[in-house]
Amino acid sequence: MKKIYIIKADGRKVIFNPNKVIRTCIRAGASRKEAKKIARNTQKMIESGFTTKEVYRIVLNNISKINRGRVIQHRYRLKESIMKMGPAGFPFESFISQILSKYGYAIEGVRKKTRGKCGKHEIDVIAKLEDKRFMIECKYHHRRGIHTNLKQSLYTHARFLDLREDFDEEILSCNTKLSEDALEYATCIGQNLLCWNHPTDMSLEKMIDGKGLYPITLLNLSKLELKAFSDIKFMIAKDLLTADLKQISRKTHISLSRLQRLQDLVGEILL
User: Fold this and answer.
1) Is the peptide bond before 199 cis (omega within 30 degrees of 0)?
2) Which strands form 132-139's sheet, in the order they lie side by side?
3) Which residue from 34, 55, 149, 155 has the fewest beta carbons nearer than 10 Å?
4) 139 forms bridges with which residues in the sheet?
């Protein structure tokens, strides 16, 4: 088939790669056969000049046509749901702390002020795993097309150097991809990463998928519902499966029947 050029959020033109659609569809729960069909149908429906946002909507529409499409759509929208968190009042650093806690880290503080050798700092997340203490810097972006760049990697390392008497290692966490310069620098200095696509064996999306730690923003909630969950700091959709729904209903003023439907949806997503 002829090459199709699509326009990314940052304005760059790139060749449409159906393999990326296949990989993300499989990650979301589609079979390889279904993922290939979605990619083929998407390629037939787009033309050069389409934006990534338009392609994304077409992919979602094609997902809706397969078995369990509604559930797979939710998983496919993971990156989008994380980008909804900040504007909806869910602090990204709190989300990262909850993910790390599910992987055995002991969380010692979120947005905690501490004194370094030469200055004061507010650390996004302080965590400990076995005998190592981590200083974690969280960089959040609420729209596509923005990379976490070298400046942010340098900034994180500079803070770590001032605090190295209190911490063993540093982690730069972000909900977007790293720029090539930032990745090169982080690799060179041994800066740990928890970002989109990095590290390849345990990236942010793989940690989320690995234990089903999808944010509550994945569930197509209204603005009022998002605010209600935000007010009680309820961030992980999976926690609805074990939560006391009557208590949550009292705190959020969301009806019990609505919470039960959300609970059922979470159960389907995690199947």
Assistant:
1) yes
2) 106-115, 120-129, 132-139, 169-174, 192-194
3) 155
4) 174
CA distance linking residue 137 with residue 122, whole number of Å: 10
For residue 14, give both structure tokens. 């790139």
Q: Does residue 230 register a pLDDT over 80? A: yes
C-beta neighbour count of 89 within 10 angstroms: 12
Query: Environment class of residue 19 by beta-carbon count within 10 Å: exposed (0-12), middle (13-18) or buried (19+)?
Result: exposed
Cα 51 to chain center, whole Å?
Answer: 22
CA–CA separation, 202 vs 198, rounded Å? 7
Give the DSSP letter string of 48-81. Answer: TT-BHHHHHHHHHHHHTTSTTHHHHHHHHTHHHH
> How is residue 34 written in tokens?
């279904």
> Is pLDDT at 67 greater than 90 in this prediction?
no
Calculate mean pLDDT across residues 221-235. Answer: 93
The C-alpha atoms of residue 234 and residue 5 are separated, in whole angstroms, by: 41
> What is the Cα–Cα distance from 126 to 137, expressed in whole angstroms?
9
Average pLDDT over residues 122-139: 96
User: How confident is the model over 55-65, as pLDDT tens digits?
Assistant: 999 999 999 99
In tens, the pLDDT along 167-202 reads: 999 999 999 889 999 999 999 999 999 999 899 889
CA 133 to chain CA mean position, Å: 23
DSSP assignment of 157-183 equals HHHHHHTTTT-SEEEEEESSPBPHHHH
Chain length of the chain = 271
Q: What is the mean pLDDT of the chain?
A: 92
